[in-house]
Amino acid sequence: MSTLRLEYDAFSATKETVYAIATPEPTDTWNPLSHASIIDAVLESACDSGLVVHREAYGLSGKPGHDKYGHRMFGVIDFSSGTDDYGFSIGIRNSHDKSMAAGICAGAKVFVCSNLIMSGDFSEKRKHTPGNNFLRLVKEAFTLLPGQLENLTKNLDRLKLEGIDDQQAEHMIWNAVRAGAINSSMMLPIWEEFKEPTFEEFRDPTSFNLLMAFTERLKGENRISRVDQAYRKLADIFPL
């Protein structure tokens, strides 16, 4: 359920390549964190919380040999959730060129994009200043994450058991338009996806499968900020 979208001057990279990027020397007012330290903090905290890593994906700005190669790092780490319907993910970002703050986001659906927009159910950012305590923030976030994930799992499982008829589905789609989660032009595509889903496992008329219809059609939206807004408002509509 996570997505690492790399645009403009960013390219996919292995974790070993990311770890090999040198960190600039700090100054009195700027203390850049190594890309590796942020990844390690997430992986170590996840292990301590009992989460099992399912997949990792990373990206770096620039190409090898370019003077800005590796100045920015983006990543998504997926964790097993015991179901194929959804997963839990952590999105991270970092920079060595003062272009953006170090950031982390978490949720059942995470977008991390090289245009610097991140979205998820939890999100924090810290500038690269002395004493910003970003790595400590990562570890503290994981003390709260298990409880949040348990609550999210219960809500998603509830939606799977919550049957809806056509009239109720139409009403929820209308509510999504009124709330600004989607444009009116998306109503028919979402309705058609709900009635004839792309994936057979989402055929039963449940609230969860209606949410999956929204998700499938939102894949075609190119503006990450628009997708972020949609999911935040859908979380209230269903509710999550």
Number of domains: 2
Q: What spatial form do the alpha-carbon principal axes imply?
A: elongated
Report the span from N to C terminus: 16 Å
- How many H/I helical runs? 7
| Residues in β-strands, percent | 15-25%
Class from secondary-structure proportions? alpha+beta
Average pLDDT, all residues: 83
The counted number of beta strands is: 9
Low-pLDDT sequence parts:
113-117
Strand order of the largest sheet: 2-3-4-5-6-9
Instruction: Output the radius of gyration.
Output: 19 Å
Tell me the quaternary state.
Answer: single chain
Helix content: 25-40%
Question: What would you say this structure looks like, in words?
Answer:
This protein is α+β, with helices and mostly antiparallel strands and 240 residues long. The chain folds into two domains: 3-152, no CATH class; 160-237. Helix content is 40%, strand content 20%. It has seven helices and nine strands; from the N terminus they run E-E-H-H-E-E-E-E-E-E-E-H-H-H-H-H. The protein has helices spanning 15-19, 35-48, 134-161, 166-178, 187-195, 207-218, 224-237; strands at residues 3-5, 10-13, 53-61, 72-79, 88-95, 102-107, 111-113, 118-119, 122-126. The strands form two sheets. The protein has a six-stranded antiparallel sheet. The chain has a three-stranded mixed sheet with strand order 1-7-8, covered by helices on one side. Helix 5 packs across helix 6 (207-218). The longest helix has 28 residues, at 134-161. The chain is elongated, with a radius of gyration of 19 Å. The chain starts with a strand and ends with a helix.
